[in-house]
Amino acid sequence: MSKNLVIASTSTVYGSGYLEYLLPTLQAHFRSVKEIVFIPYARPGGISYDRYTAIAQKAFNAININAKGIHEFSNPTEAIAKADGLFTGGGNTFELVNQLYKKELMPILRDALFNGLPYLGTSAGSNICGLTMQTSNDMPIVYPPSFKTLGALPFNINPHYQDPIEGDTHMGETRETRINEFHNFSTIPVIGLREGSWLDVSDKTITLQGGLNARVFEKGIEPYEIQSGATLHF
Amino acid sequence: MSKNLVIASTSTVYGSGYLEYLLPTLQAHFRSVKEIVFIPYARPGGISYDRYTAIAQKAFNAININAKGIHEFSNPTEAIAKADGLFTGGGNTFELVNQLYKKELMPILRDALFNGLPYLGTSAGSNICGLTMQTSNDMPIVYPPSFKTLGALPFNINPHYQDPIEGDTHMGETRETRINEFHNFSTIPVIGLREGSWLDVSDKTITLQGGLNARVFEKGIEPYEIQSGATLHF
Q1: What are phi and psi of A127, to 5 degrees?
Q2: Which of B94, B185, B194 is the best substitution to test chain A (most A C-beta atoms within 10 A)?
Q3: Which has the closest alpha carbon to A85: A116, A122, A50?
């Protein structure tokens, strides 16, 4: 029972290719893995599972790892049970969670993560590692049976975290306002992960990686920053 | 059976007070009304019903109309049934819809809107007039029993509509990408209402008002703009 997760804010940072900034990390993370199983259910922009898998494949091929879409297996539960590594890509968290429930994959996925399977999540694929998907930024385009997620982290993720833009004239809520609203209903801490940041989860140790700080929201106290390299205690 | 609705993108435009830009419109819209019932359930930033109602009250007092919070009535169903006018304020659409279902107010609210009661919605209060809340921008901080809303409009609203920002380096989805994702699952048209725009619904005629264009998203065709003053046909 020791977790082994890379939980990233985004697959892609500005001006760079898909997963490019993460490749050295992934090379180490998946060091003994020849093939990973890719979960494309979040379908960013509504692209097909095949097209999305091809994008993941291309990135993983650059570090000599094959990626096979979970939809290519006749039995997705078995695909997860037998996988040497897993990657859940970003897109729409509501649809991702909906498919995981519909296909009854939540329990096996949870087992895999808690049993040390090397896992990569980006954006929606990171959201599902938290306790609930209630701090997703996505549009509720489908109605999943529940907002509960895998609970592989003792908090929730807010990926693509954005600071308030100084001088912004838009009146929609800032990210911080939205997370504060969440804390009217929940005591679950939230980690705002900026693009280019990721969490490294090795057994019980959770470390912030990448060049940027992350912003931590706990109910009832002022949000605060933690620096890259810091260990998270919850 | 004739509707009488003002459905606004936002309560507040940049640099102006709460509802200020809408006051001349509201004066005409609620011309024979002495008191409106205010629905504060969306609780922007998690403020209390009392505090939120005081804000609405102050704005309506400027046009000599009283505003009473629905939570001040012992029976909210009766409050809606007997109201001369209604205003649902913005905030979190998930919590607003959740409360409307929990308090079993959806049917009576729907009846009121379909029977010609003068209604104002802003942001979340506009979202609920569409067929579903699936094109809300809000964070899913609570799990409502359904995403179905009042269906007083034959389409969905996306309030606070934002155009892609040129040169933006943030990799989170644009509003247009999110609405296109919705159309992988639904044929419901979506009206992207920019801040400062509103829809005037008089009987069966829906007109775009305010200084700006709105953006229309229909499944399978390129999004297009409609001009202020245009009538919407769906």
Answers
A1: -50, -40
A2: B185
A3: A116
* Average pLDDT for chain A: 96
Rounded to whole angstroms, what are the CA distances from B51 to A184, B47, B57, B61, B90? 15, 6, 10, 15, 14
Number of domains in chain A: 1
Q: What is the model's pLDDT at position A234? A: 85
Give the integer Cα–Cα distance in Å for A186 and B3: 38
Residue A8 and residue A89: Cα distance in Å, rounded?
10
Tokens of A231: 């260990």
| pLDDT reading at B91 higher than 80 | yes
Place of tokens 């509103």: B198
Examine the pLDDT at B1 and tell me if it is beyond 80.
Answer: no
Burial degree of A34 (CB within 10 A; 0-12, 13-18, 19+) = exposed
Phi, psi dihedrals of residue A4, rounded to the nearest 5°: -150, 75
Nearest CA in chain A to B14: A169
Q: Residues with Cβ < 8 Å from B107, sequence gap 6 or more?
A: none
Active site residue A123: yes
Each residue's pLDDT tens digit, A48-82: 999 999 999 999 999 999 999 999 999 999 999 99
SS3 call for A157: strand
Q: Please, are residues A156 and A135 in contact by the beta-carbon 8 Å criterion?
A: yes
Span A99-125, average pLDDT: 98
Mean pLDDT, chain B, rounded, equals 96
pLDDT at A215 over 90: yes
Q: Which residues form the domain of B69?
A: 4-232
CATH no. for residue A26? 3.40.50.880
If you average pLDDT over residues B6-16, what whole number do you get? 94
Q: Do B178 and A135 touch (CB under 8 A)?
A: no
Which pLDDT belongs to residue A1?
63
- Residue A141's beta-bridge partner residues? none
Partner residue facing B45 (CB), from A160, A177, A186: A177
Residues from chain A that touch B142, judged by Cβ atoms under 8 A, are 134, 185
Distance CA A71, CA A74 (A): 7
Residue from the list B135, B140, B179 with its beta carbon closest to the beta carbon of A133: B140
Provide the whole-model pTM.
0.95
